[in-house]
Design a protein that fits this description.
about 15% helix; 10-stranded antiparallel β-sheet; 3 domains; Immunoglobulin-like; about 35% strand; 6-stranded antiparallel β-sheet; 5 helices
Length: about 475
């Protein structure tokens, strides 16, 4: 019995050592902390057996799991258990002389615990007591989280409760733009942050990958222009509190979208970074009135899934509109009026919009030393509803200047403005209240002088006709 007690003492020491890399071992009653919403289950891995050299033996499920790990495959069970004893830091000379302890590592232990068949697990109420002495694997499942393997040691006749600290990482992924109001202008740069956590992936997992798969519509990735990474997208990756590291991803472009897959599998090569936060940042240029960005983080290269989470983020633009009418409030809407649209920068520089198909393509500035509208500015003409519209704008104030009025109307020389504002974050394309402008109708010039002038004019014409007739008559008579 003394031998068995020594072995149990060794396993208790082993429990403390393993807790440095995974979780804390417990004795008797077990309470798993940090797993309030998790469903717990246990499977016995090692059980007591006084007939063996160590006083312990693997359960069927336990040895199947350990034997599936390359480090233990084909090994003698008792030598593996002896290796656990040595791994715990106990003097190997106290073991049976017939044993040859196997070399044990924390990674191998974690892989073995993670490989225990699901069918071997039974439900376990948090805070419950396990009466059979031995070593147990504990599994926790919770929607939105992945738990690291846990284990617990139960001694003979144990009645006290020990807490096990569960280590978990969220499997959720969030994507956010760095634009505070989620409204931007076509042609501007927008950055995105993808936030996740380094997952725990068992050593025996055949898909030991951690990749970011991103798809973009309404924009283009800002790839490197030159150098060895020309044509690739720079992604800045920050893990935990460490300094950010630049990765470069190959971009694939189709008729409908652009995408990239970034392989971060080096982060899960071992478990040193498990559960630490990961923030990946990259930038794009807006090319349409709305950017749509999808991200998935998975465990495969060729067909990334969303095993470790996914998210979607939209960035929007704003649109402005002008309604052109006659001089009366209820007058007809005026088609055919020409305008330019401009904005005034903080340094008083005036920039005029250029557009195609009603969407902003850029801004042009008047020539130096003149305030004339540049010839490169786009002319917007009101439609049959008396409207012009420009899409793809950021928040701010924009002005409409009439350059040509419809036939029969005069140009309104007083420009009108509209301001785009957003409360909080936009959830759709922002439409500002329409601006309005009226034109004055041209009329015929009024007559002057009254009816008397008209009579004198007619009379004068008659006198001239009579005089001309008398002149020709007198000449004809003189000729005879």
């Amino acid at each position: 019995m003394s031998k068995i007690k020594k072995i149990f003492a060794v396993l208790l020491t082993l429990a403390m050592v393993m807790g440095m890399t995974m979780t804390t071992f417990a004795a008797g009653g077990i309470t798993v902390k940090n797993a309030t919403n998790a469903t717990l289950s246990v499977a016995q891995v090692i059980e007591a057996d006084s007939t063996t050299a160590t006083g312990w033996k693997f359960t069927t499920a336990g040895w199947k799991a350990f034997n599936s790990v390359a480090a233990y495959a084909g090994k003698d069970q008792q030598n593996v258990i002896a290796g656990l004893v040595v791994y715990a830091g106990t003097d190997a000379s106290k073991l049976d002389a017939s044993l040859s302890p196997e070399k044990i590592t924390a990674a191998d232990m974690e892989a073995a615990l993670a490989a225990v068949d699901d069918s071997a697990f039974a439900s376990f109420a948090n805070g419950g007591t396990l009466t059979a002495p031995g070593l147990y694997a504990i599994k926790a499942t919770e929607t939105g989280f992945v738990y690291s393997p846990m284990a617990a040691y139960v001694a003979f006749g144990a009645t006290s409760t020990t807490e096990v600290e569960a280590k978990k990482a969220p499997t959720t992924t969030t994507k956010e733009t760095t634009d505070t109001d989620k409204v931007t202008e076509i042609g501007k740069t927008v950055s995105f942050d993808v936030t996740s956590s380094v997952p725990y992936i068992a050593d025996g997992d055949t898909n030991k990958y951690y990749v970011i798969s991103d798809t973009l519509t309404g924009g283009t990735y800002n790839v490197e222009a030159e150098g060895e990474n020309a044509g690739k997208l720079k992604v800045s990756v920050k893990v935990g509190t460490a300094a950010a590291v630049d990765y470069f991803a190959t971009v694939t472009t189709t008729a409908t979208n652009s995408s990239f897959v970034l392989d971060l599998s080096t982060l899960v090569a071992d478990h040193s970074l498990a559960n630490q936060s990961v923030v990946a940042t990259y930038s794009v240029t807006t090319t349409d009135v709305q950017i749509g960005n999808d991200v998935k983080i998975g465990n495969a290269i060729n067909n990334p899934s969303d095993k470790f989470g996914s998210d979607h983020e939209d960035v929007y633009s704003a649109e402005i509109e002008l309604l052109k009418k006659g001089e009366d409030a209820d007058a007809d809407k005026l088609a055919g009026a020409d305008f330019v649209i401009y904005k005034t920068l903080a340094d008083t520089t005036v920039q005029y919009a250029t557009a195609a198909n009603g969407k902003l393509t850029g801004w042009t500035t008047a020539q130096a030393a003149t305030t004339d509208v540049p010839t490169t500015a786009t002319t917007f003409t009101t439609d049959s509803d008396g409207k012009i519209k420009l899409q793809g704008l950021d928040v701010g104030t924009y002005s409409f200047k009439e350059t040509d009025a419809p036939d029969g109307y005069s140009v309104n020389t007083t420009d009108v403005s509209v301001t785009v504002t957003v409360n909080g974050k936009a959830s759709a394309i922002v439409t500002a209240d329409p601006a309005q402008m009226s034109d004055t109708k041209l009329t015929s010039l009024p007559s002057t002088g009254g009816i008397g002038t008209t009579i004198f004019t007619i009379g004068g014409c008659l006198i001239m006709i009579v005089a001309a007739g008398l002149f020709f008559a007198s000449r004809k008579k003189a000729a005879k």
